[in-house]
Amino acid sequence: MKGRAMNYRQTITLIALCAAVSACNTNDTSMMDGAITLKDNVVTLHVDGKPDALIDAGGALQIDGKPVAVTSSERGLLMLYVQSVLDVHQTGLDMGKIGAGIGAKELKDSLNGKSKAEKDQDAEAGTAQIKTLAGKMCQDKASMKSVQDQLAAQLPAFKPYGQIISVSDVNECKEDTNEKSTD
Questions:
Q1: CA distances (Å), origin 74, targets 28, 58, 179
Q2: What's the whole-model pTM score?
């Protein structure tokens, strides 16, 4: 019976890990209540009443399915914008993997009979990593806002999309992160 219980525990742990890895293994993301989406390294901007704007990793901009002519400096800013979205996406994935790892470790520790104090210590270490990444995500969001503002000022076609990330969005992110770090 002991062998069956051990196999059961290993199976449960393996299923939890597989589910966690599958949930985190995606190339798509949505942020700012769906106003910014990322799929296959193409950023799509959605603004009510305006056609979608697509930006690829090479800095090409399309609005309503039509290419928009851009200067080399505008193309560079568009590339920075895509990179900022990719940075937020990657940070989110990293946070999810750490969270899934905390859950899988908790499950394994419970099955192995670890004490509450030992489990809490493991969870606190993972939580500290998540808090650090949350701060990075706020920095990434601030970078997106900065590039967005530059694009709206320099590229008239981008102006309707220049309000997706607001100063209050960046400030709220920082406040939330600071509140969590003092918990």
A1: 25, 11, 37
A2: 0.76
pLDDT digits (tens, 9 = 90+) for 28-59: 889 999 999 999 999 999 999 999 999 999 99
The domain in which residue 88 lies consists of: 2-25+71-182
pLDDT tens digits, one per residue of 115-164: 767 666 766 777 788 888 889 999 999 999 999 999 999 999 999 999 99
In a domain, 83, yes or no: yes
For the chain, what is the domain count? Answer: 1
Write 143-151 long-range contacts (CB < 8 A, 24+): 143/80, 143/84, 143/87, 144/81, 144/84, 144/85, 144/88, 145/169, 145/170, 147/77, 147/80, 147/81, 147/84, 148/81, 150/77, 151/74, 151/77, 151/78, 151/81
